[in-house]
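Today's session is about reading a structure prediction critically. Students often jump straight to the picture, but the first step is always the sequence itself: look for stretches that repeat, for charged clusters, for runs of hydrophobic residues. Only then move on to the predicted structure, which in these notes is written as discrete structure tokens rather than atom positions. Here is the chain we will use throughout the hour.
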Amino acid sequence: MGAPELTTAEDFRLRTIAVSAYGPTVVAAVGAGAMAPVVALSALALGASQPVAALTAGLTLVAELFFAVPAGAMVHRIGERRALLWACVVDAAASCGALLAPSVGLLMVAVFAMGFTGSMFLVARQAYLIEAVPYRMRARAMSTLGGVHRIGLFVGPFLAAPLIHAWGPRAGFAVAAVSGLAAAALVWFAPDITAEHEEAERELGASSSTARVLWDHRRTFRTLGLGIVVIGAARSARLVLVPL
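Below is the predicted structure for this chain, in token form.
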């Protein structure tokens, strides 16, 4: 069952949650956009071959794929706001790790961690909208979320370009680190309007293990899930091919 309506569709306006819902998303996406084109270039600069550089850039998608369901379980346990804060801070730390990584191996670990935090952020943000937005407005709210995310991805490389020109490709990770901390600050100061509902759900104890979720929805994962994986892989290939 869906979340209870926090307000009626007639009274609700998306602008009332613009800062709390979409502000952290666009700021975090700026960092992701600044980081994405420089992963492969940074790996090459550390001595990786082109196949290894491509693998390094693809680790973000791999982490997002395998940790989507566990991320949902974690969001359910600790709450959307805490999950967002955790994801933003860890993403900033991983970006700093990628910025300072002395070897390809450590760079791969940092990029993989950023994929996990990205999955956590996306799941938590969607969970927030499901609870905060009336049922009749959720499609519009979700599409707006995707739109502001793409705006951030578009702006990120342009903001990072002067720094990359001055200090090299890995300066893009510095932009990602600052964006992660800025997104965490927005989450921290934004009102937590879903806390009461999350507490009620925890008291009911309605939770499932990751293995149980995978088994219960195995047909969906085998059909729709595989299609999404193929489409996502095709779309993410540009992040590897263009820099290489």
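Discussion point for the tutorial: Residues 1-7 have pLDDT under 50 and may be disordered.
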